[in-house]
Design a protein that fits this description.
Length: about 150
């Protein structure tokens, strides 16, 4: 009976030490939550900012933390194809939001250039910036992501 109590005590102590160590180093084992967020230009913002012709072909901005990309898509002026620009998270250098009375423009600058999505809602623009900043904070061991 005494042997059983000693073994149980040793096992419990070992298990508690394991949990404490796992909690300290959990960020190395567990990946952050992966998300995909999409935002589209609003018709009201396009009309209010004098971009009525773009109401047929609005901008779409997609942030995919699983693939670590920011994609800006817009149907071209001939309505046949889609123009698409993709930036990798590690090349992002600056995020700028230009707010208007209705809507906001977001510009994401990278090493090789920049992409802009016009007339998104203000809340979508702020959410995208916050999402990129939070993802940057959760990836401290990575190098080359400078916002």
């Amino acid at each position: 009976m005494m042997f059983f109590i000693v073994c149980k005590t040793i096992f419990c102590n070992f298990y508690l030490e394991f949990l404490i160590l796992f909690h300290k180093f959990a960020h190395l084992f567990l990946k952050p939550e992966r998300m995909r967020y999409e935002a589209t230009s609003t018709e009201a913002a396009l009309a209010a900012n004098g971009r009525i012709a773009d109401a047929v072909t609005p901008w779409h901005l997609i942030v995919d933390t699983d693939a670590e990309t920011v994609t800006v898509r817009k149907r071209n002026k001939y309505l046949i194809g889609v123009d698409e620009e993709v930036l990798s998270f590690r090349f992002i250098r600056n995020i700028r939001i230009d707010t208007h009375l209705i809507g906001a423009d977001i510009t994401i600058q990278a090493v090789g250039g920049s992409v802009t999505a016009y007339c998104l809602s203000k809340s979508d623009s702020k959410r995208i910036k916050q999402m990129l900043m939070e993802y940057n904070g959760s990836q401290k061991e990575r190098e080359g992501f400078l916002i």
